[in-house]
Amino acid sequence: MKDFFMNSIYFGIFLTLISYALGIVISKKTKFFLFSPLIVSIVLCIAFLVAAKIPYESYAAGANFIACLLTPATVCLAIPLYEQVEKLKENWLAVLCGILCGVVVNLVLIFLFCLLFKMEHTEYVSLLGKSLTTAIALGITEELNGIIPVIVVMVVLTGNLGNLFAVQVCKIFRITEPVAKGVAIGTASHALGTSKAIEIGEVEGAMSGLSIGIAGILTVILAPVFAGLIP
User: Fold this and answer.
1) Lowest CB count within 10 Å: 80, 104, 141, 207, which one?
2) Are residues 85 and 49 in the same domain?
């Protein structure tokens, strides 16, 4: 059976879809925010691979077909934005300023924490793209000669944290304006956070999707500047 799983390109697809389906069921049954379908599916996939002693490479051979859907799925986020274009016209300056502030604060905090923990340049630049969608984050990290596995882990971690705690953070800081919620979530936690924003509301999802692209552009411009702060 193990050999069958290792040699089948459909194994990764099957395990991913089944794990996510179980994650949805568990999330609906428990109604506990920590049991997000994304988190549950990741845990289930890892647990199965470890228990069955199946190499990650065997799983990835099939799962990569699903990963290829990431780019078109991100592009599809333009649809809710188009439907909320009037809301964007009314708040374009606030949206732009909010995204810019979020990007700058993110980069400044990374810089300060790297100074605090005395990280070297390579590790530092490997963190600058943590709040961006994977495609942009990988491009920036490669350009700055960072460590690809590090940025991949950080992007996944950041997105999942945003997906898990976005609602709670908004409640704690009493953020009730839909546009503000969407901008904050999209700027801080890219596509995974945006999936939660879409669940919250149409306006939140649209603004979050917009924030992914603009935050990516601003980070591409600012990251090389911040990269030079730690030689």
Assistant:
1) 104
2) no
